[in-house]
Amino acid sequence: MEYTSTRDRAVRVPAARAIAQGISADGGLFVPDHIPALFPDDLKRLCSLDYVGRAAEVLGLYLTDFSPAQIVSCVRGAYLGRFDADKPAPLHPLADGVDMLELWHGPTCAFKDLALQLLPRLLTAAVEKTGDGCKTVILVATSGDTGKAALEGFCDVENTEIIVFYPSEGVSRMQKLQMDTQRGGNVHVCAIAGNFDDAQTSVKQMFTDPQLTALLRANGMQFSSANSINWGRLVPQIVYYVSAYCDLVTRGADLQNGFHVVVPTGNFGNILAAYYAKRMGVPISKLICASNANNVLTDFLQTGVYDRNRPFYTTTSPSMDILVSSNLERLLFALCGENDRKVADWQAQLAATGRFTVDDAVKDKLAALFAAGSCDDAATAAAIRGVYEKTGYLCDTHTAVAAAVYGAYRARTGDATPAVIVSTASPYKFPASVLEALGEIAPADPFDALDRLSERTGTPIPAPLSDLRQRKPCFSGCCEKTQLRAAVLQSLGLSE
Ligand SMILES: *Cc1c(COP(=O)(O)O)cnc(C)c1O
Prior knowledge:
Shape: globular
Strand order of the largest sheet: 4-5-15-10-11-14
CATH class of the domain at 86-111 and 232-459: Alpha Beta
Number of helices: 22
Largest sheet: 6 strands, mixed
CATH topology of the domain at 86-111 and 232-459: Rossmann fold
Bound molecules: pyridoxal-5'-phosphate
Strand content: 15-25%
Radius of gyration: 21 Å
Helix content: 40-55%
Distance between the termini: 39 Å
C-alpha cells in the first residue's frame, strides 16, 4: 500500500515515510491509496482474537512496509501492561441497545492513549526504515488531551524531542497539571496566549516552512507530528471500531441493521477512523457527529457550507473547542473522487476567507453517511446528570455531548438501531464540571474535587490523576501566539 497527499495525487510514499514525515510537503494530509477490505471471514477470525491480535491484523493491512513481527512488537509494547486489565477498549452496555465504548483506561485517562502509546513505536520503526538517521522533533498543538498523551508516549524515547503547545485559558485544571508536571529529558511544554486553532495553525505552518525545515535538517533534525494529521495516529483508531464490532458479535447483539457510532468530535480524527472502519466492511450504519457549542461541523454536515467565521466558545468539553477540523480534509478527498485540485482549492478558500462550499454530489454523500448535532454546556451537564440518574453510568463532559446529541437524534427519528457511544475521557479529568452537573458545588482545589466526586459516586479515582498530587510543575512559560517559532528554536537550542 502506498500513501498519497490530499493536495497532490502525484505524491506516492510508503507508510513509513508518511508516518515519519507527518504531513505532506504541499500541506496536504497523507491518505492510503485504497481502503483494504475486511470480508466476513476476516471479521469472524478477528472476533476470536484479543485486542492485540485485532490491532496487529488491522495495522498489517495499512502498514505493508512494516514486517508482521515489527507490528506485533509495536502493538504489544503499546497495549500490554499500559491499560487497566489489558483491555484498551471495553464496551460498557448502558440500556436500550446502547453501549459506551470506553477508551480512557490508559495512562492519561483519555482516548488519545490508544493512538499515542502506539505512535512513538511506529515512528521509531518508520525512521529506522526511511534511514535518514535524523533526530525527530515532534511538534504538538493540543486542545488538552493530545498534549499529555503525546508527552507520555514520547517521553525519553531515544532520538526524539517533543514540544507541546496548549492554549493557556483553554484547558481544564487537571489537563494543565498533567502537562506542566511532565517529566522526561526530551520534553518541552509551553502555554500560548491564544486558542487551539491559533496553536494548530502555527504548528502546521512550521511543518511546511522551508527555512525552518532546512535549519533543522542542517542540524540533523526533522519535524513530525503527533496530531491526528499524522496517519500513524489514525490507523490505531480504526482498530477499536473493528474491535467494538467483534465484541458486539461475540455478545450476540442483533446487528441486522448494523450499528450507529456516536462520536464527540473536535479535529474529526476519531470519527474519520470510524468512517474508514465502515469502508473496510464493519457494518456501521450512521456516523453520528456530536459537537459542543463550537458547532461548525454540525452546520457543515447539514448544509455543505464550512464556515469558521463565528464566535469561538470556551466550553466544559475543551478538547472539542475547535473551529478548523483538520481531518475533514481526508474525508473530502475521499468523497469528491480523490480530486486533489478541488481539495486544495477548498483548503485555500478556508485559509483565505474562513469558508468553503462543497458541491451537491459531496453534500449528498455526507447526508447519507452522517447525522450531526450539537449541544451547549447546559445540555452537556443535563446529559451527565440524566445518564447518571437513569443508568448509574458516570460520563465525562465530552462523552456527555455525544450522549446528548444521540438522545436528541433518537427522539427525533425514533431510530432504535443499536448504537455505540464513544466514551473519550474519564469523568475524573473534568471533576469540577462533572460535580456541578450532578448539582454539587465543586471545591476550588482540583484534588479536592477528585475526592468529592469519588465520595459522591462511589467510583475510584484513576491512579494517574491522583498521583499528580505529589508532582511539582516543571513548566510555567506562556508565549504569544506569534512567538511559537521562537519557542521551538529555543527548545532545540537553535538560532537562525
Ligand atoms: C480529542 C478529544 C475529542 C475529539 O476528538 P477528535 O479526534 O479531535 O475529533 C473528544 N473527546 C476527548 C476527551 C478528546 O480528548
